[in-house]
Amino acid sequence: MTTVRVVVGGAVFDRGRLLAARRSAPPSLAGRWELPGGKVEDGETPEQALERELREELGVEVAAMERIPGEWPLGPGFVLQVWTARLVSGEPQPLQDHDELRWLLPA
Ligand SMILES: Nc1nc2c([nH]c(=O)n2[C@H]2C[C@H](O)[C@@H](COP(=O)(O)OP(=O)(O)OP(=O)(O)O)O2)c(=O)[nH]1
Hints:
Elements (H helix, E strand, L loop, with lengths): L4 E10 L2 E7 L9 E2 L2 E3 L6 H13 L2 E13 L4 E12 L8 E7 L3
Parallel strand pairs: 1-6
Antiparallel strand pairs: 1-2, 1-4, 2-3, 2-7, 5-6
The structure holds 8-OXO-2'-deoxyguanosine-5'-triphosphate (8DG).
The site of 8-OXO-2'-deoxyguanosine-5'-triphosphate has 13 residues, from strand 1 and strand 4.
């Protein structure tokens, strides 16, 4: 049986703004904007993985809130699931895997 690994992406909200992150790695994805996150490791819940990834990559504490229904296929063997998350503390910095961050506002 093949296992599908889950990548969790965070729709991080703070004061009505949504966070977008531009990848700097790997080269095939560099320059593309995404919801930041990463792979769920063995023994972790998606919520724990999201909170860990955003601590590592952006230096912030977030609280995962609710899963957005559905999932999106990525490369072979991976799917993306998205959770809303609330910024608890810190200002996001592109520490790892990203070179630019933007807070999006309604047009
Ligand atoms: N976070 C995130 N990843 C995405 C999105 N779309 C998309 O194709 N991906 C891909 C990019 C990566 O290949 C993979 C996420 O893995 P990652 O490299 O950020 O995860 P990680 O920190 O656990 O990485 P690793 O060091 O274990 O390789 O999913 C998206 O919207 N958000």
